[in-house]
Amino acid sequence: MQSEVVASRSADQRDSRESRNGTPQLDAVSLAIIEQLQEDGRRPYAAIGKAVGLSEAAVRQRVQKLLDQGVMQIVAVTDPLTVGFRRQAMVGINVEGDVESVADALTDMPEVEYVVMTAGSFDILAEIVCEDDDHLLGVINKRIRALPGVRSTESFVYLKLKKQTYMWGTR
C-alpha cells in the first residue's frame, strides 16, 4: 500500500507538469484514463484502475485533477431533438475589428454551444441550438447581428444530424 501511494504521488507529479504553452502535459496513464472514460463516462473507477494499473483511489484523484485542470469534462450528451430543441445551425460570422470580443460575447449566449475562431471564409463559427425557427431567427437577427463588430453572418441550418461523437481518443 505504501509503495502504491508513493507511486501514485510520483505519477501525479509527472502528470501535473505543464508544457511551454501552459497546457497540462499528460502522461500515458492519464491518457489511458481519458480513453476509458470516452468509451463509457460511467465506467467505475475500480474498472478503470484495473485497466490502467492503478488503485481506485488513485484513479479518482487523477480524474478529479483532470477535471480541475479543464483537460476534460464528464457530461451527458443528448440528442437535441429529444429534449425539445428542434433547430440547430452553424453560423459563420465575419467581423470587423476585434474577433475575440465578438467570440466572448457569443460564449455568453445560452443557445450558442460551440464557438471557434477560424482562418478562412469566416472569422468565427458558432453552433446554435434552438427550440424552433423563430427562436433561431431571434438569436441570429436580434442578438448576434446586433453585436458590435459583426459585419455579416451566414447560417447553415441542420436538416439531420448523422454523427456526433466524442470518441477521438488521445494522442
Description:
40% of the residues lie in helices and 18% in strands. Strands 2-3-1-4 form a 4-stranded antiparallel sheet. Helix 2 crosses helix 3 and helix 3 crosses helix 4. The chain has 6 helices and 4 strands; from the N terminus they run H-H-H-H-E-H-E-E-H-E. It has 171 residues and is of the alpha+beta class.
Total strand count, please?
4
Can you give the helix content as a percent range? 25-40%
Low-confidence stretches: 1-16
Biggest β-sheet: strands ordered side by side in the sheet:
2-3-1-4
Name the assembly state: single chain
Radius of gyration (Å): 21 Å
The separation of the N and C termini measures 31 Å
Biggest β-sheet: count, sense, barrel? 4 strands, antiparallel
Q: Strand portion, in percent?
A: 15-25%
Bulk shape = elongated
> Given the structure, what is the number of helices?
6
